UniProtKB/TrEMBL annotation, chain A:
InterPro entries: Peptide/Ni-bd, SBP_5, SBP_5_dom. Residues 1-22 form the signal peptide. This is Peptide ABC transporter substrate-binding protein. One of its GO terms (molecular function) is peptide transmembrane transporter activity. Keywords: Signal, Transport. GO terms for cellular component: ATP-binding cassette (ABC) transporter complex; periplasmic space.
UniProtKB/TrEMBL annotation, chain B:
This is ABC transporter permease. It comes from Brachybacterium phenoliresistens. Belongs to the binding-protein-dependent transport system permease family. Keywords: Cell membrane, Membrane, Transmembrane, Transmembrane helix, Transport. The lineage of its organism: Bacteria, Bacillati, Actinomycetota, Actinomycetes, Micrococcales. The keyword Ribonucleoprotein does not apply.
TrEMBL record, chain C:
Residues 101-313 form the ABC transmembrane type-1 domain. The chain crosses the membrane at residues 7-24, 103-128, 149-170, 190-211, 248-274, 294-320. One of its GO terms (biological process) is transmembrane transport. This is Peptide ABC transporter permease. It comes from Brachybacterium phenoliresistens. InterPro entries: MetI-like, MetI-like_sf. CDD domains: TM_PBP2 (cd06261).
């Protein structure tokens, strides 16, 4: 609905008053004027709807975005788009090595780094961080956090009570190193707001209001020539529509927001670009395990297989995922990144529906079509409820589409929209038939993490008990998978892991407790009028999502003024 | 007892000869709009395609096949609009009827009878008035599996009658002191008869206006709730259509045919109802209707007199 | 005596409201722990121990009985302690409300006052000068009133902000240009940012006041005392203002008190469209995050505001309409 020139003219006549208003309101009351430095400031939006309150404690659960990684750095950076065997990028650490049995991790830390208040950074700060986490009950719920000791100014040894190869990425890539001289007196590391942050990161806090905050470049950052931009401003908005409007108007430079029809927008403005880096594997989660109390037709593996073959992923992608969905593997490892680690005998999920095969599977399992056109066995119709949170439009649309697709193969799907809380509640208690959700990744690009989280027996509880809604909500349990997970956890040899993954993959493709849809789009939008060097499909030097820490720090310290 | 209705009847008797007196142009226009929308909501759903049927042809502008185009997922906008009209009207009517009843009960009865009953009713009204409707809706919604249409309507009604009750109460207080009411009281009329015969007719303008107001604000309220994702689930309403249009960024993508119709329907219905309201006012209170013409004649006469 | 009775009455209403405020949020589904967890899950993988960590952080793992909580709540209320928010952890509720309140008070408060004055004024004139072009104002404004706030707001944003670039798209002020302070640059900027939301509110709520006032005005004009006043030969202006309008405005004043109270709750939807940092928008966040403490704080503010406004009007009512005082 573009207004015609003539209407525009008339309207703008009527709008002289606001123009005057706009002219009057152009003054700045910031110190040093509006621009501050001659280097460009990147404006970003991270999905924050409400205003901001100061919380710059990277170990607080409600820390502001753009603090982890940006102000406080980890030892290494793991790019989640690289394969398992790729080396992480050194940050505050320079190198690391495990001892034989995986209980001690020795890290050589970078020398010559200073905290933003001028105090030198040493291995003692690293040791302090780990020990402090270990001693804070709220941060060490499982009691398995490692202890650490600085053997000299450049070396720290992190010690685990048990073999913990898989914990390595958490310690190396997601533990934000804090300064001992600032935190030694803090009473509770989990709740302190750390209002005046002092970090080693590429950015420092320079201005804060409830509506936005500004991180300026750290002039004394250890990496030569970085960051090249003047700073980053984080703003809050009410939602995607505002964000889209602002991005199209050139007022946002970097954000990760779901926007339909991006290609059109990008084609209209050469400054705009986007990347699609999906790693979240959308799936129908089935309450699959009758032994743990699950009920409904979906507890029959034949029904789950029929659902798998009966869906048309091309249409799903087109209607629900902006036509940006990509192939998924029923092995739940990423087809591109993990291609070396997927059993070659397992094919990608079929992009188009195979109704004949789906119906054949049902018939072979003893189902027959009833008078209402729906398959049934022993009087139980293949009719299932499937829920998703109210207003998650991609999932809502996907379910509408699936309902229609399945009605053609004699399966009835009843989509329900519920509140996020009800949805989580159903998943944590197992009181659902199907939900639509995503199988996410872990702290490092290793399928071990999703396998352990979503398929491990120790990640689930019987129906009715309160489990973690973001873990094994299908209640899948298989001794072979558990055994393979244990072996994989006890090594950092990719070859050994691979063999174990093949075992797991065979089992989960067979049982299919999660019915894979496709890999959903994860969109990040850029504006390169002020700043260039954003990640592109050809050069994904970091995972680009603007809300994802510490990946956003990698992006923002790499980009350069245009 | 009261002379008012008689004089009113005399004032309009001249007009009665020409037209049935209630058939004013405003009523016909307003009634026409409301009847059309109601018929659309009643009948159209039987003739349109499945409003939930998705199709690969998304975001198509209006065409012979899809009179109002399609949504991003290829759903027919006209079909959705038809079902949404039915849904929204249902919500509106349930709410308006319930709110009218509740406000009349608590407002008029309390105001007329006075004493402790008035105090109790007033207290209750005040408490309900300050009850924020939005969270209440979620509370009640959580007890049932889905936030259905009836449920939302009941919640909207419970939270929307209090303001009207207050207005009615203050009006009743004011009317109660009038001579003719006092006279009937002294004459020994029973309270319910005084309320029905002496007080109610005087309150009808306010009540009809609050009925229309409740109807429109219920539809608007439902639309607002839907828009922030807390509205009716599982039934199409104008609000839910707007929610999906907004989520699909219909405006940004140029899909006016998806975003404009639901809002325009709400505005049209509201406008039509207001026109009816004007006419109701005119019937109850002839001066509302005859006054404009009378005032015009008077001004005319004055002008002519001045010219002469 | 009369005033003391009234005050007692409002105290009871306040207590009832405060009690409801306590119990209603607790009947809400889900827990704040899960809400925080859901928020974190959007940001990345959630560590299994995190749930416990959040429970400890929010103190959700050691709660007393509901009655104990209730009395604790009343006690805290008296001390002005409204608790800690989950959404804006670790900020106290009072601070968050304090941040949002001025925005709403100014935006919605001023818009409401402007609308009321404009509506009642126009309504008085329209009722008085029946049969002129002013009659056409009524259908026009009622149709505007029937337009959904947010729909109008979105169209405005699309037309005036996105396409014509006359107004900012969203926010309370230009964060890159100014920061909150009581000086000219900030205030002028804030006015510029508030213009479009305010326009939306005024346009879409004007009709109700206008119609109500006009109808009451016309009704009042048929009263005998107006006829008497006319017969006495009083000036039309005096009849319009002192005789007709003064009586006709009663229901509107009553309604105005209520809407003034609700100013504090803001126009959730308008604030949400414009990302305006006010109370209504904060309330939406609180509901979405199961933020009991913040919700209760907001409820309390709204409750006090409505009750206060009603009390003032009740007392004033006696002054405007002496009949209300004379109880039978």
């Amino acid at each position: 609905m573009h207004l015609s020139r003539r209407t525009l003219g008339k309207l703008s006549l009527a709008a002289l008053a606001p123009l005057g208003l706009a002219a009057c309101s152009g003054q700045s009351n910031l110190e040093g004027g509006a621009s501050g430095s001659d280097k460009p400031i990147v404006t970003t939006y991270n999905g924050s709807g409400a205003g901001f309150t100061k919380n710059f404690n990277p170990h607080s659960a409600s820390v502001l975005s753009m603090v982890q990684g940006m102000i406080f750095e980890p030892l290494f950076y793991f790019n989640p788009l690289n394969a398992i065997d790729a080396d992480p990028v050194p940050q505050l650490g320079e190198s690391y090595s495990w001892n034989e049995d995986g209980t001690a991790l020795t890290v050589t830390v970078r020398s010559g780094v200073t905290w933003s208040d001028g105090t030198p950074f040493t291995a003692k700060d690293v040791a302090f961080t780990f020990n402090r986490i270990k001693d804070t009950p709220a941060l060490n719920g499982s009691g398995k956090a490692p202890s650490a000791e600085a053997t000299d100014d450049a070396t720290v040894v992190i010690t685990y009570p048990a073999p913990s190869f898989v914990e390595g990425p958490n310690a190396l890539g997601r533990t934000w190193i804090i300064p001992e001289h600032r935190f030694a007196d803090v009473a509770d590391l989990a709740t302190d707001a750390n209002e005046e942050p002092v970090g080693t990161g590429p950015f420092v806090l320079s201005d804060f209001t409830a509506e936005s905050y500004l991180l300026g470049a750290n002039e004394s950052y250890w990496e030569e020539g970085k960051p090249a931009i003047g700073g980053v401003r984080v703003i809050s908005l009410s939602g995607n529509q505002s964000a889209t409007d602002k991005w199209l108007a050139g007022e946002i430079d970097y954000m990760s927001t779901a926007i339909p029809d991006l290609d059109t927008h990008v084609a209209n403005n050469p400054d705009l670009s986007y990347t699609n880096t999906g790693t979240s594997q959308a799936a129908l989660f089935a309450a699959a395990n009758p032994e743990l109390g699950c009920e409904g037709p979906q507890t029959d593996v034949a029904v789950r297989q029929a659902l798998y073959y009966g869906m048309d992923r091309e249409q799903l992608s087109k209607l629900a995922f902006f036509d940006l969905g990509t192939d998924i593997s029923p092995a739940f490892a990423l087809p591109e990144r993990d291609k070396e680690f997927i059993d070659p005998s397992i094919e990608l999920a079929p992009w188009n529906a195979d109704p004949a095969k789906a119906e054949q599977i049902l018939q072979d399992a003893g189902y027959a079509k009833g008078g209402d056109g729906i398959y049934a066995k022993d009087g139980v119709r293949v009719s299932m409820t499937v829920s998703c949170p109210t207003g998650w439009t991609d999932f809502v649309t996907a379910l509408d589409t699936l309902k229609q697709q399945y009605s053609q193969i004699g399966i009835e799907l009843i989509p329900q929209q519920v509140s996020v809380n009800e949805w989580n509640d159903a998943k944590s208690k197992g009181t659902f038939q199907l939900v639509i959700d995503s199988v996410g990744q872990g702290p490092a690009p290793d399928p071990f993490y999703p396998y352990h989280t979503f398929f491990g027996t120790d990640s689930t509880v019987p129906v009715g008990e309160n489990g973690n809604p973001y873990q094994n909500s299908s209640r899948f349990s298989d001794p072979d998978v558990d055994a393979a997970l244990e072996v994989a956890a006890g090594t950092d040899d990719p070859e050994v892991k691979k063999q174990q993954y093949f075992i797991i993959q065979k089992k989960i493709v067979e049982a299919m407790p999660y019915i894979p849809l496709l890999i959903g789009s994860s969109l990040t939008e850029y504006n390169s009028s002020k700043v260039t060097g954003w990640p592109t499909a050809e050069n994904l030097y970091a995972y680009p999502m603007s809300w994802s820490a510490p990946d956003n720090a990698q992006v923002l310290k790499t980009v350069t003024p245009a | 007892m009261t002379t008012k209705p008689n004089t009113a009847a005399m004032a309009v008797s001249a007009q009665r000869r020409r037209l049935p007196r209630f058939l004013t142009p405003t009523l016909m226009v307003g009634g026409g709009i409301v009847v059309l929308i109601t018929l659309f909501g009643l009948i159209a759903p039987f003739f349109v395609a499945d409003p939930n049927a998705v199709d690969n042809m998304g975001m198509q502008p209006p065409s012979a096949q899809h009179w109002l185009g399609t949504t991003q997922t290829g759903q027919d906008v006209l079909a959705q609009l038809a079902w949404a009209t039915r849904g929204s009207l249902t919500v509106g009517i349930i709410v308006a009827v319930m709110a009218l009843f509740l406000s009349a009960f608590f407002g008029i009865l309390g105001g007329y009878l006075g004493g402790w009953l008035d105090e109790a009713f007033s207290l209750f009204t005040n408490v309900v008035l300050i009850l924020p409707g939005l969270p209440l809706m979620i509370v009640i919604g959580s007890y049932v599996e889905q936030r259905g249409l009836i449920l939302i309507a009941v919640v909207l009604a419970i939270t929307s009658w209090a303001a009207a009750a207050r207005v009615l109460r203050s009006q009743t207080l004011s009317i109660r002191g009038r001579d003719y009411v006092q006279a009937s009281k002294i004459a020994g009329e029973r309270p319910w008869r005084i309320i029905a015969v002496e007080i109610l007719p005087n309150l009808l303008p306010v009540m009809s206006s609050s009925f229309v107001f409740a109807l429109v604000s219920a539809i608007l309220g439902e639309a607002g709730l839907s828009f922030i994702g807390l509205g009716v689930v599982g039934t199409h309403t104008w609000g839910s259509m707007l929610f999906y249009a907004q989520n699909g960024q219909a405006l940004t993508l140029g899909g006016w045919w998806w975003f404009v119709p639901p809002g325009a329907m709400i505005a049209a219905l509201g406008g039509g109802l207001s026109l009816i309201n004007f006419s109701i006012d005119g019937i109850i209170n002839p001066r509302l209707r005859t006054a404009p013409a009378a005032a015009r004649t008077a001004r005319h006469a004055q002008k002519e007199a001045a010219a002469a | 005596m009369h005033i003391a009775r009234k005050l007692g009455f409002y105290l009871v209403a306040l207590w009832a409201a405060v009690t409801l405020n306590f119990f209603i949020p607790r009947a809400l589904p889900g827990s704040p722990v899960d809400a925080v967890l859901a928020k974190l899950a959007l940001r990345g993988p959630v560590d299994p121990g995190t749930r416990h960590a959040i429970e400890v952080m929010l103190g959700a793992d050691d709660q007393g009985s509901i009655i104990e909580q209730y009395f604790q709540y009343l006690g805290n209320l008296l001390r002005g302690d409204l608790g800690t928010t989950v959404t804006y952890f670790p900020a106290p509720v009072t601070e968050v409300i304090g941040q949002a309140l001025p925005w709403t008070l100014v935006l919605v408060g001023l818009s409401t006052c402007v609308t009321f004055l404009l509506g009642v004024g126009l309504g008085t004139v329209a009722g008085w000068r029946r049969g002129t072009w002013l009659d056409s104002l009524i259908p026009a404004t009622t149709i505007l009133q029937s337009v959904p706030y947010f729909w109008l707001a979105l169209l405005f944003v699309y037309a005036f902000a996105v396409n014509l670039r006359l107004f900012p798209i969203s926010g309370g002020y230009d964060v890159t240009l100014v920061r909150p302070a009581l000086d000219y640059p900030f205030l002028s900027n804030a006015v510029y940012y508030a213009f479009l939301p305010a326009l939306t509110i005024v346009l879409s709520s004007l009709g109700g006041w206008l119609l109500g006032m006009r109808n009451m005005m016309v009704s009042t004009l048929s009263e005998d005392y107006i006829l008497t006043a006319e017969a006495k030969g009083l000036s039309p202006r005096r009849i319009m203002l002192t005789y007709a309008a003064r009586n006709a405005v009663l229901p509107s004043v009553s309604g105005f008190a209520i809407s003034l109270g609700f100013v504090v709750s803001g126009s959730i939807v308008v604030e949400s469209v414009f990302s305006y940092p006010g109370i209504g928008y904060t309330m939406l966040q609180a509901v979405n995050n199961n933020d009991y403490a913040l919700m209760q704080g907001l409820f309390l503010i709204i409750t006090v505001a409505v009750l206060g406004a009603n009390l003032v009007v009740d007392l004033l009512y006696g002054v405007i309409d002496p009949r209300t005082r004379a109880r039978g």
